[in-house]
Fold this sequence. Notes:
Layout: E1 10-17, H1 28-43, E2 52-55, H2 64-70, E3 76-78, H3 86-100, E4 105-112, H4 114-119, H5 145-160, H6 164-178, H7 192-196, E5 200-202, E6 205-206, E7 216-224, E8 236-245, H8 261-272, E9 281-284, H9 289-298, H10 307-310, H11 329-332, H12 340-352, E10 371-378, E11 383-391
Parallel strand pairs: 2-3, 2-4, 9-10
Antiparallel strand pairs: 1-7, 1-8, 4-7, 5-6, 8-11, 10-11
Helix pairs in contact: 6-9
Domain Thiolase C-terminal: 242-391
Organism: Streptomyces acidicola
Keywords: Transferase
Amino acid sequence: MTAAVTGRRVAIVGVSLSDCGRVDDATPYALHAQAARRALADSGLGREVVDGFASAGLGTLAPAEVAEYLGLRPTWMDSTSVGGSTWEVMAAHAADAIAAGHANAVLLVYGSTARADIKAGRRTGNLSFGAGGPLQFEVPYGHTLIAKYAMAARRHMHQYGTTLEQLASVAVQARANAGPNPEAMFREPITADDVLSGPMIADPFTKLHCCIRSDGGAAVLLAAEEYVQDSRSAPVWILGTGEHVSHTTMSEWPDFTVSPAAVSGRLAFERAGVRPQEIDFAEIYDAFTYMTLVTLEDLGFCGKGEGGAFVEKGRLTLTGDLPVNTDGGGLSAQHPGMRGLFLLVEAVRQLRGEAGEGRQVHAADGGTPRLAVASGTGGWFCSSGTVVLGRG
């Protein structure tokens, strides 16, 4: 590291998705490669500039196996694995490494055939993350992954009067945002009654309160500022990041109504030098409707306990006061597991003004949005990574 490169600004210069939704004829490695090639093409930069690589969720020696498959030999790597927040945390680490001169261009890649594997009988749905370590004290009692989120939602309902109709409105608005998105898996409109009358999964969550299961991959290329002039696409700058680990077992979670985004969000906004009120739109991890609601509270878009009222009346739609999950999110667009990288892809596309007709969000003045936040959550609110992004 030399003084000449220390403190460099960092931009996202390339993003892409692989084929998503129902992909029965590809391996996870192939989806990684497809997303990576597309992201590099989007950036206009050659693969030779990539000296950093980050991946998680595939292979025994991730990210070494995936890097080898892609023909990369990185001198900086990251294999952080904290569930859905992995990619926001990795983006933070990559930005720090580039700013410090430890890498010049870092590629983040993910791919999964979660849906196809179940359909083909190659795997089954997992009820929990395992029964080892601290989790051994919860698993014997049938405390499933979904049940943990459901308990937290019930606590919020009890403590603040949040209603099932308010939670259902999150799913309805996510589906409305998915409508004009050709890459979304489910696009037909739904109503609150559709959500409330669906089959019960874990009280109070019916089927449409829960994310979909899809196949798909995504890739994001971060690069130092000197590479921006050679990039094909407009840069989206990393303005501030934050990360936080809260708990593993439910017994160690101090408050079911507070997610780790309360800490990661505060850090990201402070480091970016912006306030939540300045954000044009938000991309939030939404494995369940309650995740969207409580994360909005914890990021500071409304007060604690006010999330139910905040999400009503179309505020989260593409033309609402605060568009949220503008691609349809994990509730409607795609969710192949560990979906946090998809949040960054969508945020960059919107900030560039490339979302397309009927999908592009706008700033309050009618122009292209200037500021966005992407906040990923891992486990059952165990960890959070938040990234504030800006155009220009």
